[in-house]
Amino acid sequence: MLSYLLVISTFTAIYALLALGLNLMWGMAGMVNLGILGYYALGGYVSALITVHLGYPIAVGMIAGTLAAAAFGAASCIGIVKLRDDYLAIVTLGFAEIMRVASENEISITNGTDGIGQIPRPAFFGTETVFNISYLGFCILAVVVVLLGMELIRTAPLGRVLRAIREDATVARTAGKDILRFQVLALTLGGGLMGFAGCLYVHYITYLSPEIFQPQLLIYVFFALILGGRGNNWGALVGTVLVMILVEGTRFVAQAVPGLTAVQVGALRALIIGVGLVVVMQWKPQGLFPEKKRSYRQPQSSGEMQSANNVVGESAQPYS
Question: What is the pTM of this model?
Answer without folding.
Answer: 0.87
